[in-house]
Amino acid sequence: MSKKGKFKNFLERNKKSNGYLLRKTSFNVGFKIIRAILIFGLCFMILQPLLNKISISFMEEQDLYDSTIVAIPRHFTLSNYKIASSLMSYWGSLLNTAWISLLVSVLQIISCTLVGYGFARYKFPLKGLWFAAVILVIIIPPSTIQSSLYLNFCYFDLFGLFKMITGQPLNLLNSLTPYVLMCMGCMGLKSGLYIYMIRQFFRGIPKELEEAAYVDGCGRLKTFIRIMLPDAKPIITSCFLFAYVWQWTDSFYSNLFLKDKFSLLAVKLTGVSGALDSYLMHRGIAMKATTAYSQGMIATGTLMVIAPLILLYLFAQKGFVESLSQSGIKM
Description:
The protein is mostly helical. 75% of the residues lie in helices and 0% in strands. The chain folds into two domains: 3-57; 89-270, MetI-like fold (Orthogonal Bundle), CATH 1.10.3720.10. Helix 5 (90-121) packs parallel to helix 9 and helix 5 packs across helix 10.
């Protein structure tokens, strides 16, 4: 059928429906246009800062002060990446960040899965009070308890035993021990959120599955490992990726616990400005970096920090999106 014929057929159908077809078609077209505009605006708001940093990372210092340059550098250079890599000790920091993030994420998911399953399936004394504590962990920012965490791990003592034996408490700072203890105790970065998500997922699984496993002779632990965990792969995958990404970019706990013991990308990034001043002074270029050049170097360092995460997402996006969609259905 030609376009003229289709249009004539549309008019006839619209006349028979007393204009309803035209109103419905107009509404659908208008809705699609508005939706496209909103999606484009949202994507632009998310991508524009990243695109701006990419542009700045390839500019020489003189381009940063040129008001005629908006996005495309006039003097293209790769030296910013070389300098930023040197300032952050990039490859060593990348390796440390990768394995520490993996360790912390695995410990968090193990402990949060067990606790979330317990909240979803078992009844125990003061269950509501303990779950309220989980919600408080989500709501209260970590900086609120920064002093308490520092004092607790700087003068760590278990019921006074270490002080009784050695005469003084243990100083656990500048080591991975605080990370391990907090993750195992479900007090790591965003642990409360993971417990809540996993609890909601397990609550959506029919109890008949567990009852059938009990009838077949499975105990509680075997039922959890053989029946519940395979069904929970989507939400565990989501929580693991969230934990890994947030730990990768965390500087609060890293500065608090590790200090200079391990060089991490997020920590090194916060010190780029000061390191740049020392770099320029050592080379006899300037006593202090200009504000624009310092910000440009920070933008370059930021891109280098998030680049591995972008690659991780590109490789894992299919499984990540599927895990989110499946967990969303069951939640």
